[in-house]
Design a protein that fits this description.
Blueprint (H helix, E strand, L loop, with lengths): L28 E6 L10 H8 L3 E5 L6 H5 L5 E5 L6 E2 L10 E7 L2 H10 L1 H4 L3 E3 L21 H12 L10 H14 L1 H8 L1
Parallel strand pairs: 1-2, 1-5, 3-5, 3-6, 4-6
Helix pairs in contact: 1-5, 6-7
The structure holds zinc ion.
The site of zinc ion has 7 residues, from loops.
Length: 196
């Protein structure tokens, strides 16, 4: 028997996070390309980002058929948020020549790399990375390194960097509640043993 889920945030109905999800405006447009393996994960933070931003879009696939259309949004310059040799650090100046379409692959590192491999157009985009990223509050999933952020945290930090005149803190509210809920569910004892 499956528990009833909220159709919007996909959380079990008694743990629905929708009341905490903001509706923020941004000059930057965010396009999240999610690997199908992430969709039903309990910590689907990419979905929280897409729901919390008015100028954001979430697409789920392994091969994106309409990628060219998704990337060619009039007035926006597409940049891929992903490390690479040619990647430049995001700064407030990066958006001075016009608003950015920030393209964010969502999945484990392995799955994100696979998305780039399967979608050459994605891999060919100019890349940007986060500078001075905060330490992740994301304590529950195995991250590839100490600096690894959840997709929601990475997007929040990127937007805050590009648009320092606005605050994107509210984006993290449902995320914090989600993390606290997960910790409570597994028990403090187990949490400390596994994550301390
Ligand atoms: Zn909900």
């Amino acid at each position: 028997m499956s528990r009833a889920r909220c159709e919007r945030c996909l959380r079990p109905e008694n743990h629905c996070l929708c009341a905490l999800i903001p509706q923020l405006d941004s000059r930057t447009r965010v396009l999240i390309l999610q690997h199908p393996s992430e969709v039903n994960h309990a910590l689907n933070t990419a979905r929280l980002a897409a729901l919390g931003l008015n100028n954001a879009q979430l697409e789920v696939a392994e091969i994106f058929d309409h990628l060219e259309t998704l990337l060619n949004v009039p007035g926006y310059q597409a940049r891929l948020l992903f490390p690479g040799e040619e990647a430049t650090a995001l700064t407030p100046q990066a958006a001075e020549t016009g608003p950015m379409l920030l393209v964010v692959p969502d999945g484990t590192w392995r799955k994100a790399r696979k998305l780039l491999h399967l979608n050459p157009l994605l891999a060919s985009l100019p890349r940007v990375t986060l500078e001075n990223a905060p330490v992740s509050r994301y304590r529950l999933r195995k991250a590839p390194g100490p600096d690894a952020l959840s997709t929601l945290e990475a997007i929040t930090h990127a937007l805050q960097t590009l648009e320092p005149d606005r605050s994107f803190d509210a984006l993290l509210q449902p995320f914090d509640a989600l993390i606290e809920g997960q910790i409570a569910a597994m028990g403090e004892e187990t949490f400390r043993r596994n994550h301390a």
